Amino acid sequence: MLGCVRFFLLALPLAAFAFGASGSVGADDILLAQAMLRVVHNPAGKPYIFFSPDGELGPLTKAAIETFQRDKQVSESPLPLRALRSALPNEYLGMRILPVSRIVYFEASASDAAKAVEEVQAYADFHPDFKRKIIEVMRRMYSVHGIVLWVTWDGWRRGFNQQAKISRRASWAGPGESSHHYGRACDLGFRNLRFLDGNGAIRNDDDWLQLLNRQFGKQSDQLWQLRNAIAFPLGLHGIAWEKVHLQLHVDEATNNARSLVRLLNLTGTMRWDVDSAGIESHYLSDLGRGGAFFPIGTAREIWAEMAAVKPLMGDLRTLRSTLKAAFAEAERSWQKWEPVP
Question: Which of 21, 26, 33, 107 could link 94 by a cystine bridge, Cβ 3.0 to 4.6 Å?
Answer without folding.
Answer: 107
